[in-house]
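Researcher: Good morning. I'm working through a list of sequences from a screen, and I'd like to move beyond sequence-only analysis. For each chain I'm collecting a predicted structure so we can compare shapes side by side. This is the next one on the list. No need for commentary yet; just the structure.
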Amino acid sequence: MSTSSRKIAVVTGASAGIGAVYADRLAKRGYDLVLVARRAERLQSLAASIAKTHGVNVEPLVADLATEAGQARVEQVLSSNPAVSVLVNNAGIARLAPLAGSPLQDSLSQVSLNIMALTRLTHAVLPGMKSRNEGLIINVASVLAVHSLPISSVYSGSKAFVLAFSRGLQQELADTGVKVQVVLPAATATELWDQSGVPLAALASESVMATDDMVDAALSAFDQGETISWPSVADTTLFERFEAARIALFAATQTGKVAPHLLPA
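Model: Good morning. C-alpha cells for this chain:
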C-alpha cells in the first residue's frame, strides 16, 4: 500500500466510465487512490495516467467484486488501512430485460455486485471511519431507484436498496463526522450499456449525460451539502415535494388500525 501521508480514496468500478472520472477528480483534490476493477490492463494504464497527471500515488487493485474472493480482497484493504477516508461504491451492472425468460444468473449477478459488494465494503470501511470520526462514502445509485420499467425489475430493485441503505446510514451517522452521499444519475454515457441489453444508441441522445458532467455535478452537489444528489434534475422543488409526500405517507401508516376502506363489509 501507499506510504504517502495523504488520505486515500478507494474507487470501485474504476477502470472506465463514472469510476474513472471519480478517480481523476479525487486525485485532483489531492487524494492518493486505490482503484478497484476487474480489467488489469485498463486499470494499470489509468493508474499510471492519473499518477502522472496529478502527482499522487495510485494503486491498482484487480478484483472482481461480483465474487466472494474479490469482495474479501477489497474488504481487507478497507478495514486495515487507516488512511482510507473516502469510499466510492460505484461498481455495478445492469441487465435490462423482462424477468420471465431471463437467465437466473443475470439477476443474481446484479444482486451480488449492486447490493452485496456495496454492503460488504461499507461494513468494512465504516468502523475505522467512525473511530476516526471522519470519512465519506459515496454510493452510486440510479434514478431507477424510484422508478421501475418492465425490463428493470432487478436493476431498479438493487438501486432502490442503495438509496434506502444510504438514507439509513445518513440517519445513523448524523451526529458523526462521517458523511454519506447517494448519487442518482439518469442515463449516462458509460460502458454499462454495452452488456445491459439496451444499447446506448437506442436512447434519445438529448437524455444522455456526459460522464464527466455527471461526476462533476455530483461532487458539486456534495460541496453544497446535498447528501442525495440528482445530477440532471434542475427543479429542486420536485425532490422537496417527493420527500414531503414520502414523510406524510409513512406517518399515515402509524395508526395501528386497518384503513376504513379495507374493513370487512
